[in-house]
Amino acid sequence: MTKTYGEGDAFPDFSMETPDGGTISKADLKGGKAVLFFYPKDNTPGCTTEAKDFSELKGEFDKAGARLLGVSKDSAKKHQNFIAKHDLTVELATDAAENGVSDELGVWTEKQMYGKTFMGMVRSTYLLGDDGKILRVWPKVKVKGHAQEVLDAARST
């Protein structure tokens, strides 16, 4: 059974591939706040809007001392194309590993649409403190206004 991660819990350890062929891990985020936003798929309408909204506010997140990281199961190559097509400034990572961090968090889960069952990402966001503990969770995110709401929370913590 998947553990439910909430405010005050230590965010699980992870290592994910970045579009440039490198990796990013939980240890890389230490020393400042971090926002990890999990989204279903590159180049889909809601995901594109969300990534562009976070990109537009990246400078403000930087001022608030919060690093942004968008996470999906898409490949590093798909992330490269997504970044180039939409001039994204947020970092992206690929959680392609079986039993990766999205599985651990329970945001990669069985979904249903039009009578079909499939595995998919539940759009969710986590704000981490400089100690790697979860300050705030947004489950089942609605895109409109979300990036600003997360920025406001990052500024106030």
TrEMBL record:
Superkingdom field: Bacteria
Signal peptide: none
Residue ranges occupied by any Thioredoxin domain in the UniProt entry: 5-156
Keyword Oxidoreductase belongs to the record: yes
Pfam families noted in UniProt: AhpC-TSA
Record has Oxidoreductase as a keyword: yes
Record field: catalytic activity: a hydroperoxide + [thioredoxin]-dithiol = an alcohol + [thioredoxin]-disulfide + H2O
Keywords assigned by UniProt, alphabetized: Antioxidant, Disulfide bond, Oxidoreductase, Peroxidase, Redox-active center
EC number: 1.11.1.24
Protein task: Thiol-specific peroxidase that catalyzes the reduction of hydrogen peroxide and organic hydroperoxides to water and alcohols, respectively. Plays a role in cell protection against oxidative stress by detoxifying peroxides and as sensor of hydrogen peroxide-mediated signaling events.
UniProt cross-references to PANTHER family, sorted A to Z: AHPC_TSA FAMILY PROTEIN, THIOREDOXIN-DEPENDENT PEROXIDE REDUCTASE
Protein family membership: Belongs to the peroxiredoxin family. BCP/PrxQ subfamily.
Record text on subunit structure and interactions: Monomer.
UniProt-recorded name of the protein: thioredoxin-dependent peroxiredoxin
Organism taxonomic ancestry: Bacteria, Pseudomonadati, Pseudomonadota, Alphaproteobacteria, Sphingomonadales
